[in-house]
Amino acid sequence: MKADDSRIATIDVLYFARLREVFGRERERVELPGGVQDVASLTAWLRSRGEPWERELASGKPVRVAVNQDMAAPATPVGNGDEVAFFPPVTGG
Amino acid sequence: MVVRVQTADFDAGAEMAAMRRGNSKIGAIASFVGVVRDLNEGADVAEMTLEHYPGMTEKALEEIVGEAKARWEIYDALVVHRVGTLRPADQIVLVVVASAHRGEAFEACEFLMDYLKTRAPFWKKEKNPEGGRWVEARTADEAAADRWS
């Protein structure tokens, strides 16, 4: 890894179930955009990329978020190296 | 206290026998087995696929088992959840709880299932004659889990 890379903050964004199908991917590594510091601001940034994110992550949609494999809330912090997963309400059992 | 996520089927009797042999103080063992139905919300289900979030699934189940252990005096607990493709009449999930008396075992077993259904990252997709359909979460499951809070 080059010395400069350490200054670029990245996160891994994972999608499961219906969201994985709609977004056509199960994960992506994104450079942490300026101003993104928690789940709410990350979700807003993803929505700003346009469809289908805009529609699927609209407020009021039943989307759950986990940060580093723990269920998260809108105010949960997101930072360099984090794994953030978006998925529908769970239906196991 | 063990949680397992696997594609293979399970043998509830063998699991209970193993648990019983492990501790002679056990006086009660309660178990629950979830099974695939051939009909859901009016649609014929030919098969279903269970997806999960490797890593988080095990972590979530362990946390749920830990919470049961903190709430009730139980000696042992086991959660086995299958993933992959399942067909009607196949077993999906097994919960086994051992305690000194039946009250704790019954309650902890029901608690584990209620929390598992609302907190563990599994998703079901049903295949029926019309195509595929992601199963939607039921508000009744949320209400069942809320009873314990």
SSE inventory with pairings:
The complex is a heterodimer of chains A (93) and B (149).
Chain A: E1 10-15, H1 17-23, E2 27-31, H2 39-47, H3 53-56, E3 64-67, E4 70-71, E5 83-87
Parallel strand pairs in A: 1-5
Antiparallel strand pairs in A: 1-2, 3-4, 3-5
Chain B: E1 2-6, H1 12-21, E2 28-35, E3 39-40, E4 43-44, E5 47-52, H2 56-71, E6 74-82, E7 84-86, E8 91-99, H3 102-119, E9 122-128, E10 131-134, H4 139-146
Parallel strand pairs in B: 1-6
Antiparallel strand pairs in B: 2-8, 3-4, 5-7, 5-9, 6-8, 9-10
Radius of gyration of chain A, whole Å: 13 Å
Report the major sheet of chain A.
Answer: 5 strands, mixed
What quaternary form is this? Answer: heterodimer
State the secondary-structure class of chain B: alpha+beta
Fraction of residues in helix of chain B: 25-40%
Say how many strands of chain B there are: 10
Helix-strand pattern of chain A: EHEHHEEE
- Report the major sheet of chain B: 4 strands, mixed
The whole-number mean of residue pLDDT values of chain B reads 94
Largest interface in this structure: A-B, 17 and 28 residues
* Parts with pLDDT < 50 across at least 5 consecutive residues of chain B: none
Total number of helical segments of chain A? 3
Strand content of chain A: 15-25%
Query: Low-confidence segments of chain A, ≥5 residues, pLDDT <50?
Result: none
Q: What coarse outline of chain A follows from CA principal-axis ratios?
A: globular
Strand order in the largest sheet of chain A:
2-1-5-3-4
Q: Count of DSSP E strands of chain A?
A: 5
Q: Roughly what fraction of the amino acids of chain B lie in strands?
A: 35-45%
Query: What's the number of helices of chain B?
Result: 4
Order the strands across the largest sheet of chain B as they lie in space.
1-6-8-2
H/E series of chain B, N to C? EHEEEEHEEEHEEH
